[in-house]
């Protein structure tokens, strides 16, 4: 029986290795780990250049997971992600070419730039964790975590994900710019990256070049952490908090579309994982308040009156959380 | 040849008799009379153009040769009451004056009494309904507005605008007092435990004057406050731990909240 302390040490080691290349972003790392430990998927909303790819790369290497990145564009086809059958001219038979979705960590960059059928194909794979190519169905590797990103500002030429598809993301985290101190540290580290000489030439190093290939712990450590998350105690009182919060999103005068039951499940799962990350074997209201925004915000839609009053969904949710007596 | 002439004369006499029957009957003004296949001796005829003084409107619809004569389909109607001769409204098509003008007497009668030239004015009559049309419109208008208001308010109620109003109209202290009292008595159910915990968070956010800050900040600041931390640590052990323990000094722990000041 692996103790709670061992799990905490393992998680801390992952965070430390990631922090060697990514400055700050502790909350994002925590959310990625929550998604990974609970078999959820995460949507990151933020501006370009916030080290999303680097972060996922570092996390994948730290946990010894396969990592793929797909840049979503308007001309992307479902087969570009899922894979396709290719005719082998020498044998005259079709061979299956598996797409980049067959990985542990898939970074779907700018998911809202692809056409809805591509988004649909990926989201279906996310939910079912299997892919059909030709007449054969293939299971996706375990664990399978999709980290999708979208730019919240530039909306021209994009296909907004509908609520039903957004609901499949367990978490939607809004990335923020680093603090001035973190920004300073990023710049200082960048100064010390140096160059690498190869084949008679030289090229400047990037942060990707210093990502350690040595994984933290053993592959079984991740399995035991995922198992431990499922052992975290969730009290009846905590469930009542969750139900109250979900219910208030559905019965708020500013909200047209409240949180789904799937949101409640995601809150409980997320709270369990966060409790473990924080070194507890039980979930507390702090976990609920910490995760509420990431779990609920993308599942809620304001009504016309609230939009006309200039409100946004975050205001409405904050109002609910701050008055939840 | 003789036989054909005989039949022509017979047909002419019969049609004249039929025409006389029609003429003897008075036709109401404005009602059209249609006459078909009437043989009129003489040259081909046409209706005279109408004038302001025309009392009869005559229209010839079809002319067919009939031996030396012509057979006519025509219609007419009167504009004024009285007896008239349709022959006065005919002329020769070739423009020559008629030597033997045909006699086609007609009679028109007026529905109005003599010397009355205008129809009777309309009389105001009660509608055969219980309510007048105007009142009907007013009632329909009121029902429409009521329906609209019902739709608006039912829709708002569906969204539960008023669900939490009764609770939110109470101050935090007022909500807290009975919960703390029940906790001291040992009568706190799971729902009340959840409510107590949430209300205490609300109470402390008001006491620390951080209610307008983000919920994450609120929790973080409450947890870093020594007095609040002590309370919430105890509540966590009681409400959320796998092996819950009711605080041994529950009365003293909750005493400050049994009679809190109204915020």
Protein described:
The complex is a heterodimer of chains A (325) and B (263). With 325 residues, chain A is of the alpha/beta class. Chain A is built from 13 helices and 13 strands. Chain A has 2 domains: 181 residues, P-loop containing nucleotide triphosphate hydrolases (Rossmann fold, 3-Layer(aba) Sandwich), CATH 3.40.50; 94 residues, Magnesium chelatase subunit I, C-Terminal domain (Helicase, Ruva Protein, domain 3, Orthogonal Bundle), CATH 1.10.8.80. In chain A, 45% of the residues lie in helices and 18% in strands. Chain B folds into 3 domains: 108 residues, no CATH class; 33 residues; 92 residues, no CATH class. Helices cover 45% and strands 17% of the residues of chain B. Chain B has 8 helices and 8 strands; from the N terminus they run αββββββββααααααα. Chain B has a 3-stranded mixed β-sheet with strand order 1-8-6. In chain B, a hairpin with a 2-residue loop joins strand 4 and strand 5. In chain B, helix 4 crosses helix 5 and helix 5 runs antiparallel to helix 7. Chain B is rod-shaped, with a radius of gyration of 52 Å. The chains are: A alpha/beta (325), B alpha+beta (263). Chains A and B meet through helix 9, helix 11 and helix 13 of A and helix 5 and helix 6 of B.
Q: Describe the oligomeric state of these chains in a short phrase.
A: heterodimer
User: SSE order of chain B, as H and E?
Assistant: HEEEEEEEEHHHHHHH
| CATH superfamily descriptor of the largest domain in chain A | P-loop containing nucleotide triphosphate hydrolases
How many individual domains of chain B? Answer: 3
Helix- and strand-based class of chain B? alpha+beta
Overall mean pLDDT of chain B? 80
**CATH architecture group name of the largest domain in chain A:** 3-Layer(aba) Sandwich
Instruction: Please tell me the total number of domains of chain A.
Output: 2
Question: What value does the average pLDDT of chain A take?
Answer: 85
Q: Using only CA atoms, what is the Rg of chain A?
A: 21 Å
Principal-axis shape of chain B equals rod-shaped
Largest interface (CB within 8 Å) is between: A-B, 32 and 35 residues
Order of helices and strands of chain A: HHEHEHEEEHEEEHEHEEHHEHHEHH
Annotated CATH topology of the largest domain in chain A:
Rossmann fold
- How large a portion of the residues of chain A is in β-strands, by DSSP E? 15-25%
Quick one: how many beta strands of chain A? 13
Helix content of chain B: 40-55%
């Amino acid at each position: 029986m692996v103790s709670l302390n061992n799990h905490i040490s393992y998680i801390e080691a992952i965070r430390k290795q990631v922090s060697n290349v990514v400055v700050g972003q502790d909350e994002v790392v925590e959310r990625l780990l929550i998604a990974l430990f609970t078999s959820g998927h995460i949507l990151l909303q933020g501006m370009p250049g916030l080290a999303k790819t680097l972060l996922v790369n570092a996390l994948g290497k730290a946990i010894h997971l396969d990592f793929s990145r797909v840049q979503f564009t308007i001309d992307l086809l479902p087969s570009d992600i899922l894979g396709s059958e290719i005719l082998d001219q020498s044998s005259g038979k079709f061979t299956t070419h598996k797409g980049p979705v067959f990985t542990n960590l898939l970074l779907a960059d700018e998911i809202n730039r692809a056409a809805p059928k591509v988004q649909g194909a990926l989201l279906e794979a996310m939910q079912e964790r299997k892919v059909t190519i030709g007449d054969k169905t293939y299971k996706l590797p375990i664990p399978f975590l999709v980290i999708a990103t979208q730019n919240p500002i530039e909306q021209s030429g994009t296909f907004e994900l509908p609520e039903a598809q957004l609901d499949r993301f367990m978490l939607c985290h809004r990335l923020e710019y680093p603090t001035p101190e973190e920004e300073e540290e990023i710049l200082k580290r960048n100064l010390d990256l140096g160059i690498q000489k190869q084949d008679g030439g030289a090229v400047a190093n990037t942060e990707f070049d210093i990502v350690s290939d040595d994984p933290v712990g053993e592959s079984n450590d991740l399995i035991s952490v995922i198992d431990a998350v499922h052992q975290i105690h969730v009290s009846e009182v905590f469930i009542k908090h969750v139900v109250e919060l979900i219910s208030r999103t559905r019965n708020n005068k500013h909200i047209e579309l409240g949180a789904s039951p799937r949101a409640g499940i995601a809150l409980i799962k997320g709270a369990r994982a966060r409790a473990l990350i924080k070194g507890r074997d039980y979930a507390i209201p702090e976990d609920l308040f910490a995760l509420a925004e990431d779990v609920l915000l993308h599942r809620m839609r304001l009504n016309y009156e609230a939009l006309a009053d200039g409100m946004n969904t975050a205001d409405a949710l904050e109002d609910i959380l701050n008055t939840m007596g | 040849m003789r036989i054909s002439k005989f039949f022509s004369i017979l047909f002419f006499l019969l049609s004249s008799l039929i025409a006389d029957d029609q003429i003897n009957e008075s036709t109401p003004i404005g009602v059209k009379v249609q006459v078909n296949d009437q043989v009129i001796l003489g040259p081909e005829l046409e209706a005279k153009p109408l004038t302001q003084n025309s009392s009869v409107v005559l229209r010839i619809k079809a002319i067919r040769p009939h031996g030396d004569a012509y057979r006519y389909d025509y219609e007419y109607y009167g504009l004024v009451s009285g007896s008239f001769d349709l022959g006065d409204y005919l002329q020769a098509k070739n423009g020559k004056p008629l030597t033997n003008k045909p006699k086609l007497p007609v009679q028109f009668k007026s529905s109005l009494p003599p010397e009355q030239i205008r129809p009777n004015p309309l009389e105001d009559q009660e509608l055969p309904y219980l309510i007048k049309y105007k009142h009907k419109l007013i009632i329909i208008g009121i029902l429409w507005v009521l329906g609209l208001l019902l739709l608006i308010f039912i829709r708002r109620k569906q969204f539960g605008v008023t669900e939490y109003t009764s609770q939110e109209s109470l101050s935090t202290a007022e909500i807290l007092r009975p919960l703390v009292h029940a906790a001291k008595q040992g009568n706190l159910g799971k729902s009340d435990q959840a409510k107590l915990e949430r209300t205490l968070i609300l109470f402390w956010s008001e006491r620390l004057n951080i209610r307008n800050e983000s919920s994450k900040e609120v929790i973080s600041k409450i947890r870093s406050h020594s007095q609040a931390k002590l309370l919430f640590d105890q509540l966590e052990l009681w409400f959320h731990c796998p092996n819950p323990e009711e605080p041994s000094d529950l009365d003293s722990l909750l005493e400050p909240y049994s009679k809190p000041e109204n915020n």
